[in-house]
Amino acid sequence: MMYERYDDPIISVRDFLRRIVRTALLALALFVVPLAVGIAGYMVLGGLSPVDAFLNAAMILGGMGPVDTLSNNAAKIFAGLYALFSGVFFLVVAGVVLAPFLHRVLHRLHVTVDDGSDQESQPPKAEG
Prior knowledge:
It contains three helices and no strands. Helix 1 (13-44) packs across helix 2 and helix 1 (13-44) runs antiparallel to helix 3 (73-110). The protein has helices at residues 13-44, 50-61, 73-110. The chain has one domain (17-108): Helix Hairpins.
């Protein structure tokens, strides 16, 4: 996704809302692959049913923690690694979602207002 440069005009509210929707869809799409990996790992290594595997993967990916206790070491190691990955992944996706808002705020701070004159701004002269 390309953002406008600091010297470009601020995009319209309509375009900004489109950008937010695109970003939200990207964030949703980014969650699909890790969720599928988590479901597969819990099913294969943890011996959980698809619904229980989805619940555990979704809870860890969302930062809430596991639901079911795991009985074997392979499943526990997978769950630990998946939890570590999920914590970092959650922060990355949060950054992706917040980027349009932060960009708009920073862009507003850098926009210069054209007063119509072609003269460069001069500091006021000291009296005296």
